[in-house]
Fold these 3 entries.
Entry 1:
Amino acid sequence: MKIAIDLQAAQTPSSRQRGIGRASLALVQSMVRFSRNHDIHIVLNEAYADVQLSLRMALAPLPADRFHWFNAPTNPEFGVLGLTQIGERLRERAIAKVDADLVHVCSLFEGLSDAARTSIGHVPDLVQPLTSATLYDLIPLLRPDPYLVNPDVRSWYYRKVASLKRAGLLLAISDYARTEAIDALELDPERIVSISCGADPIFKPVDWQPGEQEALRATYALTRPYVMYTGGDDERKNLKGLIAGWAAVPAELRTRHHLLIVCRLSDVRRLELQQYASSLGMGPDELVLPGAFVPDQDLRSLYAACALFVFPSLHEGFGLPVLEAMLCGAPVIAADTSSLPEVLGRPDALFDPKRTESIRDAIANTLSDPAKLASLREHGLIQSRKFSWDISADRALDAFEMAYAREQFEASTRVVVPADNRRLAVMLGTPVADSLLTPLVEGLRSRHEVELVGDYPAGRPLADRFDVRSPAWADAHASRYVRTLHLMGTDDTPTAMADAVARRPGPVVLQSLGDPALNKPDFEALFRAHGWRASRLVKKQGLASAAAILPLTLPQLSGASALFAADNTLHQQLVTWFGARAAAAVPVLPLVGVDAVLDALEPRPALVGPAAEVWRPNHFYVDITMLARHDLRTGIQRVVRSVLAALPEQLPAGWILAPVCAHGLHGYVHADALLADWLDLPLPDSIRTREGQPVVPAADDQFLGLDWVPQLTVDGQAHLDAWRAKGVRVAFVVYDLLPVLAPQFFPAHVTALSAEWLSVIGSRADGLVAISNAVADELRAWYAAHPAAVNKKQPAIGWFHLGADLAASLPTTEADPAALASLDGLAAGKTVLSVGTIEPRKGHDEALASFERLWADGVDVNWVVIGQPGWQTEALSAKLREHSQSGRRLLWLENASDAVLAEAYRRADLLLVASQGEGFGLPLIEGARQGLPLLVRDIPVFREVAGDHAAYFGSGQEGAALPDLTRALAHWVKHADAPASTGLAAQSWAASTRELISLVLDQRWQGLPAAGAAQQQGQQAQAPQE
């Protein structure tokens, strides 16, 4: 079965922290965990977006597309009742859109003073699915005073009761609640099932550590053993009855104990109870009233440590505190009313809550009998095993299955509607193969009177057995048909078929994708379906040619109630062009059979808005904020540019690259025009005009934090939460952890911000992608040392290696003639190149000192430095600019374009990388690609990247002594014997980007099972090359 569950009870402020909200969530969690292969969907209220992410996490592993939201108006001009009724109708229509076999409402009695909207059967034109609801109690109906004194509350409550009576099934939380509802509402007993309740797993016996009980007593001002109550404070809870019963307990017993009442109390109510106790002769410290919220952990400890737990309620639907207390090992006595006897399961532990002497005797006799106390503790631990949310979920699923089977049986025995009211028009495309048509029509006739509409001449197999009508005749007699099925022939176009579906709604069976050459050129439609692939084709071949190549079958036919593929070959074409996820919604007719078409022909509930959602590919959102604001030409910006250039071609079919920028209060905004300008690609006007507008993502989209913008990420964490709540998967690229691992090289504010950024992404990302194995290991170690930064569940961590082809990195500007001239002006001798931002960790100061020694010794060697000045290097920057060898032996190019960088690589004789810490070491790969020998500092990440293809200086590996930088440089100038770097595996940016995509979309995290959503859905299929 497909089961839709309304879980607003776990969203609303009035319920989510109370028993109903927590019980609803716990029951659904167990249903999801033991689903019996039922397809479970969750319906939530968009008004409470703040808890959507926490609910999605609580209900893992339900995928994102199993969560659905509805919006209800909040415009005050509608009035309270108007808002409620409109919201109820919108909710019912939104639930109908899920097309479930059964809908379960966790709590109908919501929305009195908040934005929740619940109802059953309030939209007359909807075909209502079988609907179930949880029944907690009918206490306000049976005890209207004081609950229903207010006429507005009374009206609201009676409307909910009316909905309750329209439910096809009710799940009562106790046998008593079931019996009470059967009697009060005159329900068919078959329609209501008792599923009982469970308690939160936190409630269990306490393994006391030294000093814990003393600390607990001190917190709650308890100086001696105590008798305890917890629960609500409304009249039926009988708090004054409990206090009166306690006051009647013999003084010698009473004065050795406190009476602890744990519940929320206003100051006025607290004073009232204290005065009442005093009037009965109780001492000032006998009654303990914390009055405020008590955390669950403390409540568990209070249960476990109490001398006796007393529950004197006059009327309950279940009596959860009784179960919680038993689970914690407390001895429990309770009122002999409503559901409490079945929960407690101990007749000799019951009392009459309306009689003071009965309460008195029960407390006094139990407290003074150690054997009975021990017996009650043991009994409670055994009795409580009969209750759990897993047991309740099992009973609920049993009830769902039985109710659904009963409904199906009743439907099968109903009188069949006369054939005239089941007439089906089968609209024939051009042409339609008899091998498809004949078995299909034979199957359809089991429920319908079939007429063929289209060109179907005499002599074909079905011509003498079915009426054949012309399209014109069928149009003139449109009211004759109550169902329509479209068959798209091999010569039909999706555009024409879409027009036909608009005139006659119904499902479509596809024999082909249609001939794109017959499409009207529409750049916007092509871009929305195929993204940057469409832009490349338009630039390369023109709009008309692009329209003739790229199919628009799925977006054009999104108005059909269902789509079917005639064979596997066509289905594979859908996978090729639109991705496996989209193709999965178009089943292969021979595989699913005619029954699937018959089901698709059945009337579907009315939807909110259009008849169907427009087909939409998955969006791959890439954060390029810093690159868009100001390309600093750092290594990170080079990575962002390079990956961005490769992504449009490397993303699998069904995915579209969508660049975004972080924008404060607006969250993330579109940045397509920036990418189009960088790539020199055309962009539809409608896409260009949305530049800077907020992005509205959808479930199963992907966000990748490719750029490093820590402050904006920290400031925008609420937007990430909102995206994840909608089902967007989130990943970040981590370039290094140097600010937190080597803070001596960074300003204090950068270190602090980096730690905060790591905490934000650690607690919100589904996966983190490091740019080397070394960084991945550092990341795991940092989170292991900072567990609070991952919010209970550490994200998956993987790594990939960067590319090295500068020409593929959206290179910045042409070569500057002045920069090239300065390279020409270097003195004779060998040239050493260093590439990287001028920062303390990069080792430029050490390198400069080494070159100064060599120059002083008369060694002919030049040093070219390419990189912008960074932080904490003012003195070094000034020294480089003003050096006596500047322009002759020393050349610092502060703002070199990628073209100048490429020329510097070509002219150099050696690449020097002296950095004391890196995430990867991109210049190593770029230098090796040019065949440059490499002289690098001996740190783990450089060993990982360069291996045996570099000469090393500095600290040795495994005790091997290595020369310092000056000796290493002098040796190379004299002998030129550094290992050849040509064997170093340097991959292209296309290959590097494919690695990144495989990690993020297929979730092929190193060391973890490769079981990601994209992999499962086959989204790795690539669109064909044009």
Entry 2:
Amino acid sequence: MKVWRIVPKKTFVVPCTEKKSIQIKEIRVNPSTEEYWVYTTSDTATVTTTEIQARVAEVLAIHGKLEIHHTQPEGNSIDDNPVEGMEELQSIATFDNTPNIGEYDIPHEDYYDLVHKENEDIYDEAYWNACKVVKQSSKQVKADEQHTSDVLLGKAITAEPTAINEVLGEEDNKVVLKGKVVKVDFREFKSKRILLTFQMADKTNGVSGKRFFEISNQTNGKFKRRNSLTQGMYDSLKAQFVVGAHVLVSGSMQYDEYEKDYLLNVEDIMLVEDDAVEREDKHPTPRVELHLHTVMSDMDALITVKDLIKTVKKWRHPAVAVTDHGVVQSFPLLQEISQDKSNQVKVIYGMEGYLFDEHIDQSYHIIILAKNQIGIRNLYKIVSISHLKYIYRGRPRIPRKVLNEYREGLILGTACEAGELIRSMVQKKLPYAELKKIASWYDYLEIQPISNNEFLLREGYVKDEEALRQINRTILRLGDDLGKLTVATGDAHFLNPEDKIYREILMTGKGFKDAQYQPDLYFRTTDEMLEEFAYLGEDRAKEVVITNTNKINDMIEAVRPIPKETLYFPKIPGSSDALKNMCYTKAHQVYGNPLPEIVTARLEEEFTSILGNGFGVLYYIAHKLVKHSHDDGYLVGSRGSVGSSFVATMADITEVNPLPPHYVCPYCQYSEFFTHGEVGGGFDLPDKVCPHCGTVLHKDGHNIPFAIFLGFDGDKVPDIDLNFSGEYHPKAHKYTEELFGKDNVFRAGTIGAVKDKTAYGYVMKWAEAKNITVNEAYINSLVSGCTGVKNTTGQHPGGVMVIPRDMDVHHFTPVQYPANKKDCGIITTHFDYHSIEGRLVKLDILGHDDPTVIRLLEDWTGVNARDIPFDDPQTMSLFSSTDALGLTAEELGSPVGSLGIPEFGTSFVRKMLVDTRPKTFSELVRISGFSHGTDVWLNNAQDLITSGTVPLKEAVSTRDDIMNYLIQHGIAPKTSFKVMENVRKGKGIDKVNKVGEKTTNYENELKEGNIPAWFIDSCKKIGYLFPRAHAVAYVMMAFRIAWFKINYPLAYYAAYFSIRAKAFKLSAMIHGLETQKHVMKTIAAKGNAASKIEQDLYSALELAVEMSLRGFSFLNVDIQRSHAKHFIICEGKILPPLTAVEGLGENVAEQIVEARNHGLFTSKADLRVRGKVGPTLIELMAEEGCLGGLPDDEQMDLFAM
């Protein structure tokens, strides 16, 4: 064999430990076997061979077999033939050394120094193979290249993989594994080192792995460290090595002391195809599956829409029917994915319903397929009727008469063994004539693989498998006699045979005793189905599997279950004109007539988009809702980006003014605008009097671009979210019914699915039932296979879908009760609201605490909250000190006084306040942005601010900051908008495709525009950014409440404990400061073991302690004076409500107050009778001292006299 040599030109030293190193004299490589021999000298005898071998392999990026040969330190001669069987020793190249070995990867093609150029014979095949092996050792890819091959890390893996189960529990220097990634994390350290940790699993078990590496900025081709990646390689790895990826990896299994387990130290990673996906349908005439379930079949099926469409397309099936149990909730996503240009798959939209005759309790399965658009609408009506009128034990049943009434456009099939036909055959044992009568009602008959019905054999309904085949023969005969098509269906519940384990886990979790007996309900190919029915004979098998299923498909038109993506607006005649008139009227009132140019331009810009796209009615609706709440005395807070719209401000939808900071005179309408970033917000401007009339000027404006709300082109459907008082919330919903009609307003439906935590419980229950031990990686792989399966339905907390008066809801969706609970009185959309909100107007009428707190404070103090100035110095000081409370930081235990203030009361935000010490309203807005964002504060803005790199007023806190900053620094508005959109969604500055390649060049534009590096780096770290309009609205409410905290403390604390406190304990609260501190200390000592109720009580006690320190205290609950649910001011103290008594609920409290309104209670007996209070609760209240000495009854009281 030929062995080639590589010799360093200079001394080349490799550090092995902190104080020990070795010198590499020569490297030899056998290209055919990828064997390496490294000749070294060591400067100390204490370095072990294992240490040297590990370090040399790392530094030289050697992945093959490595042997270390030692020579004398002072000697240079090396045995020319230490390798047995070596034919010849020739040089490939020499390579330079460098003073800093840590920066290089050896060898590298750029450093080849060919030594035999005069002898062309040296360039034989062995030479080039040797060069190739050496080149593969260097994993360097130039920084300006993207690593887009199947090799994600290291080199290509050619060895066959071993089952994971075979490598667990012992060390192994070289393993190759294949599986699915179930967990992955890239942890980036400030040192620019990165730790990749992951878990992967195959069918046998799971394994955890790790790899340290760092990002190198070198692009000059010099040697890089083995554990060094270019930015391009890292981006590619991060984009493709994700949960769900199927990979081939190589590395070594080693025991990890920290994890106390054997981990895979990964060296090479390749993307590979999923073995399961390799199943193909090669039949020249594919079948059509007419009975299949997706994850929308409640806790029963595992097929995702995406995987289904991908498989159907790959198999060339003409169509596929989706027939979930009792629901049609997969339809929106089916339409979206199947009609995508890259797919174009025909879907037959159907359902497996529960048929019953009203005089008989028993229900049967039935397949209902929609053959045209009429059928879709009728199917929706059937779904609504079954969910609203005929829910039985959680199952939506369909009366036969309803199915007959809405049968137009529908095709009915006999379904599975749970269908009427087979049940009549197997359980009722009806004669053939009766079976024929039953079958005649259906449009086609179904037969299924006998493995689907094996439980009939286990349960004793049939004696053998031949009896199962005979059932199918009988159905085929019925079809022949009735002239009806008989089709073979699979009743597929999972995609591939190996997926049955996930259904077993789900059913075990649900408590099924026979979950381990899973039938083969996988999606079969044409040949697999033909094999299942071979006993019918070749021709008949082909007829039921291929011919007849295609005939059914031919009867069915391509339909759209969801209308085209056009917004169907509710109609309010004259709404657009009314909106425009009210806005200009308000603008003239505030800014004068003629309007300032900046105001006119903003209104015209917005109205062009709003009215041009038909959005005027949405604004008008929001105006009507807010006005209705204001008229009833409740403020409304805006959410989201609606405050970005000046039209919304002028229509009184929001208090947030998005114009640049400005002064405006409330008397003569003089105005002065600041358009170059001179000030963070209008509320920060110093007080000033009008130069024309001497009136104190009003200050406003938060500099929020309109594009934040409706997009750069102004054509994005406005999402107007409003925070109503929690007390007023139901009235707001009722008012929408008055506006649009009860039959046109439905709550926005949601669909819940199995999450990781729930799936984890199912997996552990399954493992316990099977008495097996599984490791974390394998558990997570099983968890991933069970998540996403529908397990309930619900409702958006405030979302309302509005149907135009001239349309029926079934044009868009069926309707139902949330979670099928008909006693809740709420009807929701059957489809998840996200899937139809692009077609229907969704009003977000949310309940919120702040408006309720403000209403209580206004009622108790007589102060109009809208008159509170947003630059009040004392109020502002609460966010940077405790002085305004009359307490020291040491007394309060906090350097700031924002405890209990919404947005600023949590320990996390209080630490932000300590770091930033805000002095202006706009800085409070920034802090709100930091706290609501993801990866905006920690390891980002916090470091920039505390290090003095940038001031608080410049750090990126909200999405608007990016657009404003870039435009102010000369970047084109559209680029600024696009960058903002990417960053706010956590996508970085440039868009990146699925293999990590940049598809835009915005970062270079920013660099060329001299945008500072700190700004660019900050943007690249962000995961989510809050809109400034939302932050402003929140801070306005918070600032008002903070003002009350200083100026009306008793009212503030009473409102806090009435609305915001989630827990209250009389014995802990009413006995003063020391008791309060003692209880807090007891809870704190429990640490993470403290219950949720204890944690909530701790938060409430923090406010109670503050209140006590300020000289205020609680009274005890008083049966004769306490409010039902609100804390009230009484005798200069705070009187807790009746609900503060443990175990006394709101309904009982209301009963007590209602009885008390007709006369004070005279005895415990009176309280029991008139207040309808049980004796146990009465005794508890007596023990707590809440009854004020009430006698047991009137007779005892008279006797005492």
Entry 3:
Amino acid sequence: MAKLVLPPLDSTLLTLLDYLDFHAKHNADQPYFLFPSSNDLTGPMAALSFGEVARASHRIAHILRPGREGKDGDVIGLLLHTDTVLYVAVVLGALRAGLVPYTISPRNSAEAVCNMLDATNCTRIVSHDLLAALVAEVRADRDARGKRLHIQDIPDLLTVYPTLGNSHAHTSVEAYPTPQVPVDIDDVCVYLHSSGSTGLPKSIPWTHRYIAKWFRLNLIAGARQRGICFGAMGLPTFHAMGLSQQLFFPLASAHPVVVYAPQHPAPPAVPHPQSIFALARASGCSALSLVPSVVEAWARSDEIVQFLSTLQLVTYGGGPLAQSVGDRLVAAGVRLRSVYGGTEFSGPVKLWPEPLSAAPEPLAPSADWAWLAWTAAATARMVPQGDGTYELVLFDNEEYPLAVYNVHGEKAYATSDLFEPHPTKEGLWKIVGRKDDVIILSNGEKIVPIPQEGHIGTSPLLMGAVMFGRGREQAGLLVEPAEKYAFDPRDEAALIRFRHMLWPVVEEANSTAPAFAKIFKEMIIVTDPAKPLPRAGKGTIQRKAALAAYADEIDKLYETVSESTSIEGIDLPRAWTEDELIPWLSAQATSVNDDHEPTPDKDLFQQGFDSLSATFFRNRIIGALRATREAHLAQVAQNISPNLVFEHLTIRALASFLSRAADPTLSDQPSAPSGIAVADIEALVHKYTGDLPAAKATRPAGKPAPVVLLTGSTGNIGSHILASLLADTRIERVYTLDRPSVRAPLERLKAAFEERALPADMLDDPRLVALAGDVTQERFGLGAAVYDEVLGAATHLIHNAWPVNFNLPLQAYEAQVAGVRRLVDVCAAAPRHVRLLMTSSIGAASLWDARRGAVPEAALPDPAVAASNGYSASKYVVEQILTGAVAKGLGATVVRMGQACGAKATGAWGTTEWMPIMVKSSASLGCLPAMSGPIRNWVPLDAIGEAYVDWVTADGALPAFVNVVHPRPTSWDVVLRGLREELGWLPVVPLDVWVAKLDAMSGVATADDLARVPALKLLALFRRWAAGQEDGAEGVSSLVFASDNLQHSSPTMRELQPLSEEHARMWVRYWRSRHYL
């Protein structure tokens, strides 16, 4: 690797792009980002080089503003919750495109986001599906107010970094056009925003001149001198501290920064004390920037404290750190320092001795770790407040410019932060609070209490209310009852009644507050009549004196809250069964998650949960178990894991776990899907087949060019069907119909193609018309003109959209069943012949008796064969609907789908299915499970897509049923050999031994373990296989399915070659390309 060349900090380089291009020329192969190359952190760190980051900026610039069309200086909002490496590239790409990026926190409300857009005349944003709900609210506001808003999807990770992790595999990129006019150093480079702690966030412009100052700050310049490698994995990029560590420091120093491994389009890694520590230790970084809550969590571990003592520097900021914690760390040799700054004025702290020496000395542990000194570059004035505290006011100067001013008649910024001087050492200061009484939580979030206190204080129940929580993980509320409601708070029954009466007004106050400022019922303290709140002469509560008076009660509350299992005012579950637990758990989850009702089958942490809400949720579950007063439930409560919610990520998974744990006869048994009543299946069949219409049109004598309406085109199978249709010139037109989303239909298709390694340029085909709609709605949710156009042109209707969830009851699928009946009615009423192809599943025969031979390619008269779960039963019902429709003259084919596996051409196989989950987990466990016997029913995705083309272009009549299974089965031995070869010849162990390894982890698994070994989430399934309750790893797929109709109707299937070792190797390579392995 070439010698490192440090960029000059003397204003030779004026802009961020100047620095980036300097490194692209002089330090192209030097690492910019370091991140794990493997989930278990055993391998070397992967890297993205300065050269690759520079090339990424050109790629993104081309995407955001092709050809540099339009004018420079337009603001583009970045409303993103994505990986650091992608976020930084988008910032730099926007700058390259001549745009002004606005890094917007995704934690903001829609009102706050709209306020920011208005303040900066921003009419376009970059976002993605993870923030669809927030974006939809913003779009609705813009539409209602007649304001233009263009929403662009964030580019895919591998589009931005095509050689991700291999910095030497240089890829060419077309240089983006340079600006016609030189950049003015006083132009706005980027917008950030304030925290909104005193109202709506304020937009803060950062000019090129202001940013250049950051590069010369004491913190960055001193760390550059010492060759420090920062671990900044716990910092959000949209924040000023995140930008300084993840963008400014690498550009200023030519040294890398350590971040989490990218995993877009999945949500980015959630910073967690354990994962930050593990990555810091594995990466070899020499300094860490942390929030106080992480430092406090680490201080309890001798192992972590010892590791921290080996680092050159550990900084914390954004909130206070308990004195006892810092003292313990320093006593153990940790070089701990407090840092301080603000979006409006950067960081005035002197961390390293000044002037910076050419031969710098390392820092030593210091008893003054919590105290701050100001850099000589800053003009700082400490303004006395008359109570022993001082407000910091900073003045603009050439070496230390400010982003904004707020002092009338002065180029100065009054921070509102209050400090106290060191008792013996002049020039040292400690932050103690804010003039506006903002509560700074231990995670750095800031709460302005006045609006919530004011709203709650209007209740006739109260004389006053004071919020507290400085330096804590969550806020609490101290309330003083009005005289006629006063009571002794030691009276538990009276306390419960009073909290219950007060709770509606607290909920109202919570509804207007940020999520992190929400007050939980458990966090309310009621004053003692014998100790009224202290008040000033004019009757206002003296906040500091009030909190001091109740300091003991507040401390005691925080000491017990993590163990608190109070369920006062909360109804217990009517029974500890899955059916009763789902609504009860949903109600509790709603209560602790800012009143957002969760979807039972969706990851709670993708619905707003964080570690705090998970703690309260777990505590309520334990409290309910104890309150039931049954001995075995008390034992269950005692054994509940601290990671309960991380281990069971959905409401349904929690309900299943708790129902089994609560039943003494089942607590040691694996969970199995509940069966479906045959009578329910028959009733639904009768409901939707009783009045089927006769087909109006007969098959035409001629054969018109196929026009296809395809539903579900963004899924695994649907994407490959669409790709195959567009690849065939005989197809005249393809309409796709996918459920409405915040993104345009074509954008979603492109994302789906890119995810599955399909050529996205196929979607530029003029024959494609991408629509948003839903077959369960009238006219498919389309406008009348579009609906008439589609139905007037279509010759084939491929219905491939169907939710896959084996835990849902049959009733949950009725809307989809009704949608199929709607399709049948539409096709039957069409004036021209329309053939309907419906994607079903071999699961519709899941309980077929193998002694009867192969499952036929025909309707199955006994509904009991599909009674294993709601999904299979729903497919059986629609098969019966189509069977009845065929009898009425409709041209319809049931495509009974086997296991769709990785495509022949690309190996693409979606990572949410059991097979990739098993392989990923095996890589972490260090062994593969032994499987044996034939694999009959796995069919490559692209072969499935090509088969649909065979049916659409067929000259003759099609059969009513086809079983899509492989005509030439392979064996598990072949697949395992291919997997082992690509995975480094992992040993193969008996299935029960492999499952035992999962069992050993399950009781102590952390959130990181669940990410590395996702098979833990399917443990019940693998247990059933190991116990022989299902036939091998195929389950229903071990049945034999007839395939004569399939082979006669599809040349693709007739000629399909067996799956080979190379297919298995391709699957692994695909999963690696998506950073799944």
